[in-house]
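Recall from the previous lesson that a structure prediction takes nothing but the amino acid sequence as input. Here we apply that procedure to DUF4286 family protein from Sphingobium xenophagum. The sequence below is the only information supplied.
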Amino acid sequence: MTKYKLVAYTNSVEGKDDAFNAWYDYQHIRDVCAIPGILSAERMTCVGEGPHRYMTIYEIQTDDIDGVMAELGQRAGTEAMPITDALDETTAAAMVWRPMA
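The prediction returns the following tokens.
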């Protein structure tokens, strides 16, 4: 099986930082890690200035990264993975990474 990293860059809506972080830490990470192949997550916050305040690195191990990402997309915004209005969806970005060797 191949190991991957899913790196998600996010911001909260102005004035909703506490609600965003509570949702992310206690709801969203649990929902994402319930997808088969997604093993763990680590959240980080930016030390300086940049376009994103938060970054989450998800550890994935699978032979079917397209299937894992499709499942993530299918669950997003459903009862299995609700999205909070405290997330600034206009600035959110995510990329999948794999080892070079």
